[in-house]
Structure formats: C-alpha cells, structure tokens
Amino acid sequence: MSNLSHVIILRLNFDFFKGEGSSLASYQADECHAHFTLYYRHNGEVIFQRSDWSVTFLISNITSGYIFTQVVLPLTELQKEEEGSCVTDGPSAPPVSTPSLDPSHPYYDVARHGIIQVSGDDHYGRKLIVFSSCCLPPSHQLNHRRLLEYLKFTLDQYVEMDYILVYFHYGLRSSNKPSLKWLREAYSEFDRKYKKNLKALYVVHPTNFIRIVWNLFKPLISHKFGRKLTYVNYLAELREHLNYEQLFIPPEVLRHDEELRATQKGGPPPSVKTPPPRPPLPTQQFGVSLQYIREKNREAVIPPVMTQTVTYLKEKGLRTEGLFRRSARVQLIKEVQKLYNLGKPVNFEQIGDVHVPAVILKTFLRELPEPLLTFRVYSQVQELLHVESSLRVTRCKQIVESLPEHNFIVAKYLLCFLHQVSQESIINKMSPSNLACVFGVNLVWPRHGSISLTALTPINIFAELLIEHVHTVFGSRCPPAQVMP
C-alpha cells in the first residue's frame, strides 16, 4: 500500500445490510484519525459520491462478515490546503485586546484564549455567538473537554432565546484541531434546547476538507439542522446577514480574508467603495438620531416606533412567555421597518404576532447611530465590576443622571416599561436578569469595535440594575417633558 497519505482504510460490517433502504456502514479512517458514519444502500450497492471523489462497493453477494479495502482520495491536496491556509504552528495570541478576565471565572483556563465571544445581536434581535479557530492553542495546552463544557456554559445563557453561531474556520491546523470524535460527542451533547433556537450557522472561510467532513457527518445531523448551515467565502458576505460592525473578528481572520480576495482578483484587494450616504427621508425612523426623529415628528419626545410598540406590548404582550427572546420572520420585520420609514401606518393588531413589535423595538434601539445611553457611559459601565455591590445602584444613578435630557427621558420611558415586563416574570419568564441579557447590548456599546464576552458582564449587570431599580435610579430627576409608558 503505497503513499499512505492518500489512503483511507475502510472496514465495512455487512451484518447491517439486510433489507432495502438506508443501512449503516461504519468505517475507520486511521490516516485521518477519525471515525465516520456512512449511510446509503440501494440494490445491493453501497455508494458515497462527491464531485471531486467517489467510491463504490459492490456487495450483492455478501450478507455478513467484514471486508477491508482501500480508497484513494485526494487527501494530500486537502491536507495541504487545510494546513497551507493557516498560520504556522505555535501558541495563539488573543485576537484583540479585551477587558481583563477575572481569574476566578469557572472556565478561566479556556475563556482567557478568546475562542468564544458574544457579539451583540444581528439585524433582527438574535444573539451572535462567535467561535474563532485561530484562537485555539495547541491541543496539549487545552483540555478539549473543558472547551466543550465552556461552550455549553456560554450557550446556556442564551439558548432560551433565538441565536446565531458564526464559526471562523481559518487558523484550524493539525496542532490545535479537536478530533472528529470530539465533534461527534459535541453534537450528541447539544440536545434539543441548543439546536431548537439556533437560527443560523455561518461557516466562514470553509476549506474543501471541512465541506467533506460536513458531508460525512450529514447522516448524523437532522435535515432541519442541516438547513441552518451557510458557507461564507468572504467576510463581505456576512454584511448581508449580520450587524457586521458589532461582529468580533480576529485580526488574523481579517488578514486572511484580504489575502483571499487578493488571490481571487489576481492582485491586491480592491478598496471598498461605499456609496455616498443618502439623506434620510423626512419620515425616517430607523438609523437616524433621536434628535432627527424629534424634529421631524412635531417635537414628539418619545419616538413613534417606541410609543407604538410599547403601547401594543403593554396591552397584548406582558404575559407572553419569552417576550423579547423570540425572533420574527425576517421579511416581515423588513416590511414593517419600511412602512415606518415611509411614514405609513403599522397595524400590529392586524399582524397578529406579539414578537414582531418586540423585535421592532430592539431593532430600533440597535440601529440608533449612537446608543440610547450614549457612547460616553460605556467606559463607566465597564468599571461597574470594581464598585462594591452595595454601592452599584447609586453608581448607576450617577451615570444615568449625567445623560442629556432627551436621552434621559427616552431611557426612563423604556426602562419603566421593561420594569413592568419584569413584574410579570412568573408568567413570561422575563426577569430583570433575562431582560438585561436581551437589552444590555442594545443600550450600551463602544464607539469603536465590538463587545467582547468579558465586556458583556458589566453591561448586563448595569442593565439589570436599571430595570430592577428603575424608580430609584431615575426617580430624582423629573424633566418637564417626561412621558411615562
């Protein structure tokens, strides 16, 4: 058997091949250090075929026993592609500077590498969770079982709401690659609660190798789950689906994307041409400042989108379980946004889905050019962890009282409403803590860059304190134009 790097050894147990239909054949790929499961039988023939390689086993006269055979696959080319597209072996540095992680964190040994990050929400209010392969250290420096536990620990905070996974494949190499056995165990451990609310899985910069591995795992993966996968060849494609500016992208991935585009174009990557900004419509509601909305809406202090969504949700949604955690149909959200921006009426009663106004409210906040609580408070919120617990409400009050009057009024209106939602938490399951996980990143974000996983903790604590202690935090300041929900 020459050139073992090209050969996979297959061991087929034909005891399983009885009757018609799909059957099980298991084979061990020693040269890939992996175990695959393959389904397909038709007319006594087992066939697995791809466009770049294929293999056929004729077993019409075999009913039991074992057979060993060798299959020549383009593994050398795949491995070269996989290894050649990655950085050289060695310790991985954190992708960007992030707030220092508390050494008492239960998964400090894994979290310190920055492998997993939470990057706010997408355009439709779904939480974004990022897994960066380039941040994986060499396997001997990381317990992959702990990595799996940490991934579940992170997801457990968000799986009750709709969420998105973004997987950056670049940087995965032989020295840091988890085994396929680990992948299989991971998939089996992620039960329905993890898979149900996963709305999309984006695999960025996929290689042919990962496409083949995905095909080999297909029999183990439900058809419904498989439809959630999207391959993304270039980062620019993510802009169609996600809030790209908030996405946590390691510098190594950015450089690799530039190199790919340069190769694709046969020269250096072209400069991104941004079309000149169009002046907003007089009726524009999304993506414009609070001041603009006020000036164009007869000095209405509370933006119409907020007034209408809050009014409807107070009447119809306070007792809806998982309010603000669920997403709505993307196309419907786009249509409602368009109606608002054109100054046309929106009838939530006619739409009949309480989650639509909930998503619209979150989307409105997220698309403000400056966060409702302003850029200035971001650094102050990050310091909240260093404030003694008994003094944090007082510190929150100081931060909020420093807001411009218009921002203060709108924030008070929103937080009073969220407090009302939390009062029904026995039924709707939306406690101040759960609401904070949803709204924190929609109230505060940095002027530049994205929010790292470690930066989320003080943001969520801040939002939770505002919701739970709204009357204390906002109570001492009563502007003349104040409006209550």
Automatic annotation (TrEMBL):
Record-level GO cellular component terms: cytoplasm
Transmembrane regions listed in the UniProt entry: none
Positions of the CRAL-TRIO domain: 106-261
SUPFAM superfamilies: CRAL/TRIO domain, GTPase activation domain, GAP
SMART domains named in the record: RhoGAP (SM00324), SEC14 (SM00516)
Residue span(s) of domain Rho-GAP: 288-474
CDD domains, per database record: SEC14 (cd00170)
GO molecular function, one term: GTPase activator activity
GO biological process: negative regulation of endocytic recycling; small GTPase-mediated signal transduction
Top-level taxon of origin: Eukaryota
Record-linked Gene3D superfamilies: CRAL-TRIO lipid binding domain, Rho GTPase activation protein
Entry protein name: Rho GTPase activating protein 8
Organism: Astatotilapia calliptera (Eastern happy)
